[in-house]
Amino acid sequence: MNYIKAKYPNQSRQYIFATSDDVKAGDMVLNAKGAKLTVTDESVDMKWVATYGADKLEVVKKYEDPEKRYIIEREFEHAGYKCVVIFGNVGHRCGYVGIPKNHPLYGKDYGDHLEIKKSDVVDRAVSGIFPLIGVCLDEDERIRIEAYFQCHGGITYAGGGEHSDYPIESDLWWFGFDCAHYGDADDLDRAIDLFPSRKDMYLLKKRVTSRYPIDEAVIRTEEYVTDECKKLGLLKQKHFGAERNFTR
Asked: Are 174 and 159 in contact (CB under 8 A)?
């Protein structure tokens, strides 16, 4: 058993604890109630421990920060909107554009309809196979958000709102897309660097993909996803005319 001194956040007083973990100054530890403390570099008086009774000391354990599901590669603004590029621990990137509360599409799902008729945009390309299928099968004369806005593979995410934390902490409503479609390749070397605890899984995936390659599969880089966020250029009201409504 090791004996350490640690302090609670925003406190200067230090307390002595017992732990079976290997910790050093600056590490975080958890007590039985789940409270976090910071280990200090002050030495423990072992005579005091013997006098007080080692078995009476509170036992703490080292806090292991859980591995994140993704990391933020780029955060920027374009055309007045917050944009975020993330790299997920599954090996590919996603892009997001956030809109504020005063935007007509705030809180809308990407499957909701715009007050724009398909006949008005007959020459406009549709991004992604599923939005394309939706356009073909949808009997409504209006077009869906996912079919109107252009980005890699089409919009595949809508969410956020007040006090949300994905993809970043904000009150914005986010529309996003992913790079995990047919023809997209995982960036496994980057994944190994960012999420080393999953290295074995990535190496196995590399062996499988090298043996059974997908023709013309392309890694969608951070720069590519950044450009797609800009292309999405989501939701500028001038795209529709100031006098028109976006949704019913």
From this structure: yes
